[in-house]
Design brief:
The structure is a homodimer. Chain A is an alpha+beta fold. Chain A has one domain: 3-Layer(aba) Sandwich (Trna Endonuclease, Chain: A, domain 1). In chain A, about 35% of the residues lie in helices and about 25% in strands. Chain A contains 6 helices and 10 strands. In chain A, the strands form 3 sheets. Chain A has a 6-stranded mixed β-sheet, sandwiched between helices. A two-stranded antiparallel ribbon of chain A has the order 2-3. In chain A, β4 and β5 form a beta hairpin. The longest helix of chain A is centred in the first third of the chain and has 17 residues. The radius of gyration of chain A is 18 Å and the shape is globular. Chain A starts with 12 loop residues before the first helix and ends with a helix. At the A-B interface, α1, β2, β3, β4 and β5 of A face α1, β2, β3, β4 and β5 of B.
Chain lengths: ~200, ~200
């Protein structure tokens, strides 16, 4: 089945490969601090696990394995595989008994966050998670200013619905300041998003 | 870092590759019904999602990507990658607001379930999930009889501890009948494990 994003971009394998290229480039452009958002979140989640605060993991990158070679006496080698479109968000786990689920995205833009960064799959996954009583949000990073926002899933869904209705295709920074929550960067944990989750859901 | 299972088997890449080989063989030996346990669970989880009952997904197989080729005008091809040891269990999601987490395993044995089917990583993950108030269990399938059991994480941890203390390296079928719960196979959903979760946690 082939379908398109609201912006007309094709949905599927080529898109995920270009996503991967962007990921690769990201690592370079982010070299001022030497860490990608993904790495920062991995370190943060490791800290949460080690401190007994929460069990949250990044899901592995989904890959369609086509060919595997089994050399004698050494590890199996995957010799042909393709990137698949993820059907969920990237991070999930458990915090204080509750299901936690989120996605992390970066943008080069200085003034707004383009909604095309999300796949339709992910939006409907977020919708489902909320319906089933899970905690859902996205972490958005502005590369130029290194500002990080936590935006609750319900607000993301409203902005998405506005776009589908013909409205703007991005979330302005002003809107993020109103509906989202700035996450301060610190030493340990790097991105303490659970502090905001605490304020929003456990206080 | 290299370490060994209690049974002396090496832990790491070669072990995960042989795991994959077993997975491949499994698909053939299970051909009487034409479905593997994994496929049955995927169909079950799809049913749960479509019926609005729960949002549970299998995590992608973790793969270490070494080389990617980007042909012009077509999808990126992964040309070298290796299987990685999973650091968590395979399935997780949200049910009635609670975090659900489980692993599914099959055995050829007719009389007991060998504990070496689990990785130490998975055991400590199960322990952590329980500590954080999540629902954790394993689904065990006896291939010969096509019997399926749901065993709660706490019981699996006891059996594991007994082995570490020098006791038996498997769970006998009698023990599974006492501590576990038989899951009847049916048409839709195939493996209705949430019915047992309901009895255990929501009644």
């Amino acid at each position: 089945m082939e379908f398109h994003y609201p912006n007309g971009r094709k949905y599927g394998r080529p898109s995920s490969s270009s996503h991967f290229k962007n990921e690769a480039m990201k690592k370079h452009s982010y070299s001022n601090r030497g860490m990608t958002l993904e790495e920062d979140l991995n370190v943060t989640n490791e800290y949460y696990r080690e401190q007994g605060i929460a069990i949250i993991h990044k899901k592995p990158t989904p890959v369609q394995i086509v060919q595997v070679h089994y050399p004698k006496r050494s590890a199996a080698v995957i010799t042909e595989a393709y990137f698949k479109q993820p059907s969920t968000t990237d991070y999930n786990g458990v915090y204080k008994g509750k299901y936690i689920d989120f996605e992390a995205k970066e943008t080069q833009s200085e003034t707004s966050f383009p909604l095309r960064n999300f796949h339709e799959h992910q939006i409907s996954h977020i919708e489902q998670v909320l319906k089933h009583g899970g905690i859902s949000f996205v972490i958005i990073r502005f590369k130029s200013s290194d500002e990080l926002y936590l935006l609750e899933g319900c607000h993301l869904l409203s902005f998405w619905a506005r776009m589908v209705d013909g409205g703007r295709k991005s979330i302005s920074k002003k809107e993020l300041n109103q509906k989202g929550h700035l996450i301060p960067l610190q030493l340990a944990p790097r991105i303490d998003y659970l502090r905001i989750v605490d304020e929003l859901y456990f206080s």
